TrEMBL record:
Enzyme Commission (EC) number: 2.3.1.8
GO biological process, one term: acetyl-CoA biosynthetic process
GO molecular function, one term: phosphate acetyltransferase activity
Name used for this protein in its record: Phosphate acetyltransferase
Keywords in alphabetical order: Acyltransferase, Cytoplasm, Transferase
Catalysed reaction, written as an equation: acetyl-CoA + phosphate = acetyl phosphate + CoA
Keyword check for Cytoplasm: yes
UniProt-listed SUPFAM superfamilies: HprK N-terminal domain-like, Isocitrate/Isopropylmalate dehydrogenase-like, P-loop containing nucleoside triphosphate hydrolases
InterPro entries, alphabetized: DRTGG, P-Actrans_bac, P-loop_NTPase, P_AcTrfase, P_AcTrfase_dom1, P_AcTrfase_dom2, Phos_Acetyltrans/Butyryltrans, PTA_PTB
Domain notes: The N-terminal region seems to be important for proper quaternary structure. The C-terminal region contains the substrate-binding site.
Domain Phosphate acetyl/butaryl transferase: 392-707
One GO location term (cellular component): cytoplasm
Length: 715
């Protein structure tokens, strides 16, 4: 196990962001990383986790549990008493509590500030106590290479000089005047690597000959990004000491613009845009009513700050009731408008520990600008490759891009679906077809500040020649549906999209953002039907565990499958896993392992395992296995020492829907695990259902999964 200490050279450079990105990039390359922050920068802790903000963000982003940090008061007392060695013993004890299951531990060093003047001394002591390698984290003025060279030289002296074997290199954060082509799009680690100006690099080499050599690598250059510095409306309330009048969607709305508004209504139309925080005197009833109208018309403002300690009178408050239903956050402050805006301008850019969405965006963004070749070289030969969640997601997108499939989205004017379709179309994940009126889609795009990309198809069902679809439905359902019944069914866009899929006009279908699972799946059973080699349809979830990606099946479709059906589910799931780059090791789950239990349920799993072995003799499969015997190596060796699967299973087949769905939900919620799915398998053509609470990212990955299924079915 190795240790890397991130040493910040100055304040406000984003050392935690660097840690987030570095851990994700390592995870993408199959390197298991843990995190610790040995000492608190200040003694502020996250109320929910009792961790410092850095550790809380890491825990939320990666499911890691960093050890507690030593508080500043104790550090200052120990240094004052000349007990630095004892302090480092405590650091080593915390370090060892992480365990030996990681390949590297990323430590975040202290930022040198007036309050933490001992930062350099402490960082040097940490490096020696943990035998850590050093990566400096800094920013840079690209017009002054000498300034960076001097800073690196001064800080490197604490660790034996810039040519020391202990020093690996540096990451330059928040760099201005460099290309920034991936400002907010989620991209893969290493995909957006940028280089500094040639003249700058030549000057750096003259000033610091080891710079950007094997002795001192430039590991990443991360451009400054305005869009990743946007706070939530929720975050500014504490900064302003505001009183909430209506919280609404304050925890999800973000502030892209701040508008100090005091003009007449006729002259403020341009401020009513998505993401605008409007700062307005609390007694301007006309402006408040104009803002209410903007909300009702579908413009998602970031929020309203009413200044001067004045709140709306009861008449205005009554007129605002409809607008409040849109989720608009409203707060009141005692300060005047100018003071309020000044406070907002000086607000800290740190990511709040509970801002998961922003932390994930920053993590992706930083990782995209890191040099993966350095990670591969540094860790080559010292670890076993694995399919990490980050690598899985990237692989799904890449395979979908290669598939070039046409996916129909029956909920064509649903806002999340429109946004996901725009992203999929612009990134080449799929050619998306929205079933909706163009005017409705364009209005959604306007409200969400989306640009409808070239090639995005919008088909208005009212303008389609329905006669051919009626004929296709009647033919497919001979004796079950009349022309009149078919015409009525085709008014449902899910049924229409499924018919288009059956007629090969599209390659796959994704629905469910506003429809029930039954509404999505029923037309598929009626029109698409099962593939010739299968007798049933089942489902799987891809569970993005911190360690790796595993498959759970069936968690959504079949209540109580027979042994033959369970075997078929296992085969379908193994084939799906293989299609997505997972070498299947299938565990047939039961409440007992091997021959230790008896009863009909155990016999069903035993028989299903035998059938799978007969039909797929080269597949690694075993059962019955208890869940812990299948997933935990130490338990697997004890309970099933001769099993080819125990302790290392990555495809888990549950005996019934009750067990599967309960386990899926329990793991997802208790371990904060991201899941992708459910993905239906066994149909002639791919149809996939969304959760009605699906996020835009969920829809994007479901579209990608569907495209890959369509490609695999066509081979």
């Amino acid at each position: 196990m190795q240790t890397i200490l991130l040493v910040p050279i100055s304040r406000g450079i984003g050392v935690t962001s660097a840690a987030l990105g570095l851990i994700r990039a390592m995870d993408y390359n199959g390197v298991k990383a843990a995190f610790m922050k040995p000492f608190l920068q200040d003694d502020t802790l996250d109320k929910q986790s009792s961790l410092d903000s850095s550790s809380a963000l890491i825990m939320d982003a990666f499911g890691l549990t960093p050890p507690k940090s030593i508080n500043r008061q104790r550090v200052e007392r120990m240094i004052g008493d000349d007990n630095l060695d004892e302090l480092m013993e405590e650091v080593v004890e915390n370090y060892q509590s992480i365990g030996n299951n990681q390949e590297v531990i990323i430590c975040e060093g202290l930022v040198p500030t007036t309050e933490a003047s001992y930062a350099s001394q402490i960082n040097r002591a940490i490096a020696h106590a943990l035998d850590a390698k050093i990566i400096f984290v800094s920013t840079v003025d690209t017009s002054s290479p000498a300034h960076l060279a001097d800073k690196l030289d001064v800080h490197a002296r604490e660790f034996g000089g810039i040519a020391s074997d202990r020093i690996l290199g540096c990451i330059l954060m928040r760099v201005h005047d460099v290309p920034n082509t991936f400002d907010s799009q989620p991209v893969a680690p290493g995909e957006a690597v940028v280089s500094l100006d040639k003249d700058f690099m030549q000057a750096m080499v003259r000033l610091s000959p080891h710079f950007n050599t094997d002795q001192f690598r430039l590991i990443g250059v991360v451009p400054f990004s305005d869009s990743l510095s946007v706070p939530r409306t929720w975050d500014i309330a504490a900064e302003l000491d505001a009183t909430w009048l209506h919280v609404g969607e304050a925890k999800s709305r973000r502030i892209n613009h701040i508008s100090l508004t005091a003009r007449s209504v006729a002259r403020i139309d341009e401020v009513f845009k998505r993401g605008t925080l409007i700062v307005v005197p609390g007694d301007r009833d006309d402006l408040l009513l104009a803002a209410a109208l903007a909300c009702i018309n579908g413009i998602p403002l970031a929020g309203l700050v009413l200044t001067g300690g004045v709140v709306p009178n009861p008449t205005v408050a009554e007129l605002w009731q409809s607008a409040l239903k849109t989720g608009i956050p409203i707060m009141s402050v005692e300060a005047d408008s100018f003071e309020t805006v000044q406070s907002l301008m000086h607000m800290s850019a740190e990511i709040p520990s509970d801002d998961t969405e922003r932390a994930q965006e920053v993590t992706r963004y930083v990782a995209a600008h890191l040099d993966l070749s350095w990670i591969k070289e540094y860790f080559s030969g010292d670890h076993k490759p694995r399919l990490s969640p980050a690598a899985f997601r990237h692989q799904v997108v890449k395979k979908a891009q290669q598939a070039k499939k046409r996916i129909v989205l029956p909920e064509g004017s649903e806002p999340r679906t429109v946004e996901a379709a725009c992203i999929c179309q612009s990134r080449g994940i799929a050619n998306c077809v929205l079933l909706a009126k163009r005017a409705d889609v364009e209005q959604v795009a306007k409200n969400r500040d989306l640009i409808l990309p070239e090639g995005l198809e919008i088909l208005d069902p009212d303008t389609l020649d329905m006669s051919k679809y009626v004929a296709a439905v009647v033919e497919r359902r001979k004796g079950k549906t009349s022309d009149i019944q078919a015409a009525e069914q085709l008014k449902d866009t899910v049924f229409l999209g499924t018919t288009m899929l059956q007629m090969d006009e599209v390659d796959g279908l994704v629905s469910g953002a506003i429809h029930t699972t039954a509404s999505t799946v029923r037309p598929a059973f009626q029109l698409i039907k099962t593939a010739p080699q299968y007798s049933l349809v089942s489902s799987i979830f891809f569970m993005l565990l911190p360690e790796q990606v595993v498959v759970y099946g069936d968690c959504a479709i079949n209540p109580d499958p027979t042994a033959e059906e369970l075997a078929e589910i296992a085969i379908q799931s193994a084939e799906s896993a293989a299609a997505f780059g997972i070498e299947p090791k299938v565990a047939m789950i039961s409440y007992s392992t091997g021959a230790s239990g008896t009863g009909a349920d155990v016999e069903k799993v035993t028989r299903a395992t035998q059938i799978v072995r007969e039909r797929m003799p080269n597949l690694a499969v075993d059962g019955p296995l208890q869940y812990d015997a299948a997933s935990v190596m130490s338990v697997g060796k004890q309970k099933a020492p001769d099993s080819p699967v125990a302790g290392q299973a990555n495809v888990f087949i549950f005996p019934d829907l009750n067990t599967g769905n309960t386990t899926y939900k329990a793991v997802q919620r208790s371990a904060n695990v991201i899941s992708v799915g459910p993905m239906l398998q066994g149909l002639n053509k791919p149809v996939n259902d969304l959760s009605r609470g699906a996020l835009v990212d969920d829809i994007i990955y479901t579209i990608a999964l569907t495209a890959i299924q369509a490609y695999s079915d066509a081979i």
